Recover the amino acids of this structure.
């Protein structure tokens, strides 16, 4: 899964360079999670996961608090969680997750982003079967061998553990997210490079330079959409 980690790093670096856009997306996601359950992360696992992710992107506490207070205040903004699937050049596959208060607008915007950049939307299920929902937890300060030992002691199942550039990365099933974090925190790790559940491709493909340039434009166009929260794909961008 090493190449997947490289793609994840590039995606995080891209997000870190667009902080205002990312903060706005997190604000919406935090609001929705808090609205759907208790506005307390200790009583709302979905909210807790979002807040853990927000920490790895250095989302300011003021933005987090504002979104939670908005949910507590009974705001009546309603959002639908949508997933779109589609294709780019030369067998590339894309999953787009969105939160929207206007389904027609979002569908039109996503379809346009695909179409204007050489791609096309597919039907539900046309792409997702080639991806696996996977918890990815990354941190510094403990090597892979020691991390495996502590996870075994805590009886936590994982798919893989790798070391990349001083970062230890754990890949696990989605339902192991909190158990992995609790085990690692028990060993004194408090800061995480990444703490997310992502849709990772089962296999990755390489594109030639022209196709990759076109593909990256399409991904950028999708990620620039206000309603789009996450974009996943199967292209090795290294």
């Amino acid at each position: 899964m090493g190449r997947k980690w490289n793609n994840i790093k590039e995606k995080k670096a891209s997000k870190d360079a667009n902080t205002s856009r990312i903060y706005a997306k997190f604000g919406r996601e935090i609001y929705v999670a808090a609205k759907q359950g208790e506005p307390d992360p200790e009583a709302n696992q979905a909210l807790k996961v979002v807040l853990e992710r927000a920490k790895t992107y250095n989302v300011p506490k003021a933005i987090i608090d504002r979104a939670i207070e908005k949910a507590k205040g009974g705001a009546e903004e309603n959002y639908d969680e949508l997933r779109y699937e589609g294709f780019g050049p030369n067998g590339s596959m894309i999953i787009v997750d969105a939160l929207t208060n206007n389904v027609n607008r979002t569908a039109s915007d996503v379809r346009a982003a695909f179409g204007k950049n050489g791609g096309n939307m597919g039907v539900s299920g046309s792409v997702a079967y080639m991806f696996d929902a996977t918890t990815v937890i990354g941190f510094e300060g403990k090597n892979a061998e020691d991390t495996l030992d502590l996870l075994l002691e805590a009886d936590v199942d994982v798919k893989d553990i790798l070391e990349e550039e001083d970062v230890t990365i754990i890949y696990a099933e989605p339902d192991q997210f909190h158990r992995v974090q609790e085990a690692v925190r028990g060993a004194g790790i408090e800061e995480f490079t990444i703490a997310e559940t992502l849709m990772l491709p089962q296999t990755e493909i390489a594109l030639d330079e022209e196709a990759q340039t076109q593909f990256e434009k399409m991904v950028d166009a999708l990620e620039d959409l206000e309603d789009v929260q996450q974009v996943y794909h199967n292209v090795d961008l290294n």
